[in-house]
Amino acid sequence: MREHVLEVLASNGILLEPGALEIVMSKDDPIAFVQSAISFMKQHPLIVTAADLAEYVKDHSAAETLGVANALPDNHEFRTSVNQQSNARKINDVKILKDITGNSTCEGNISDFARYFLDRFNAIKRMLAHRRELAGSLPISKALKLERDVRIIAMVNEIRVTKTGHKILEIEDEEERCLALIPKDSPLINDSVIPDEVIGIVGKPNRKGEMLIVQEIIRPDVPLRSRFERSDATSMIAFASDIHVGSKTFLRKQWDAMVNWLRTEGISSGVNYLIVPGDCVDGIGVFPDQEEELIVDDIFKQYEMLSELLKEIPDSVTIILQPGNHDAVRLAEPQPAFQKEIADLFDSQVIMIGNPCYLEIEGRIILSYHGRSIDDLIGNIQSLTYANPIDAMKEMLKRRHLAPIYGGKTPIAPEKKDFLVIDPVPDIFVTGHVHGAGVSDYRGVRIINASTWQAQTSYQRMHNFNPDPAKLPVVHLGTGKCIVRNFN
Q1: pTM
Q2: How many Cβ atoms from other residues are within 10 Å of residue 488's Cβ?
């Protein structure tokens, strides 16, 4: 048992000093105990000491005394094996773990919206409750009655700045609303709080008990992993977003060069999967005067063209198609997979998924999302730009939500379950949409923005937007090593 525990912990980047190991082995469930302890630590230590565990036990006991549930992190955050959804679908070697397709129940009425935001709040609240800084968190109604530092978990309704430079947040939980003040001289004044995100707050009620003075803001974030964990997987997976078939600016020459590479060097190096994260075709009527940009103005013929292009890719490559805001599905996210009349245009090795979608391929959890909400994040967080969409993806991971802002450029359908919550934490997170190309790592999650196969359009030129096209990120599923092939 001791060797098994050490092996599991080491595979998750955690080492124990001898004294800490003795404490762990004295517990009924050693792995669950360390899992809970690590989640309460502000930083992932390289070596967990007996003092670390003693401090956790002390704080955790205090939290239980205050009536806080003994919440262990979900197994996906620190796992010995991959957890599967009970309704996971397996197609070839691809498991679809979470997808709105066939599961949409919303009608768009007021009760749907109330239920949707409550599900979002509760899902992220569970993550925040694991944070050490929020041990002993209270409902707003109880927190405002106290004359000491308090901890709460709330959703942000509105942000405004006073004439004197203070920042006011209107926040709420399941039962109560209140205001939270960030003083203008606080180091938090430049924190990028955005509408509808769920955050933890450490603060102190004012004398009247009607407002919180904010001292610290905590986000759910993803657990810190020292590296992308290696596995026995041998395949490579490629990502080619925003093809925009049907557009005059579709880069056919570069696309053909990429397909030729796949048929030769790609196959020999083990590329067995290709994911297209949305905007497979250019669509019809997506932006003003789009018809002037099209060589094919029939949506079904655009998909027929795409089907013919994909037939050139070897049968050994499993192709996964996802819709985006240019595609023939509902605009509101989450978007279901393509309907039968479109899906039937494609060969059997092409798998249709919704947007977003959680997949498992050779043991790796992949979150594929087209990325429409990047527009909203860039519009609300001053430090973000279209030149570096990877930074926007990191903000999604910090907030554990793909589209936290409601009422912006990203229409959101009020489903009973919020399919846009980032849960579980993926191994690979990929988006498209903004026609950029980038690869990075955030806390052990491989992040990819998967370029485009469309040159600059007149609409983009008018908005001074410069794409970074014809680049193909390719990731080794075993090592996580990523290369970006340039076909310009």
Answers
A1: 0.83
A2: 10
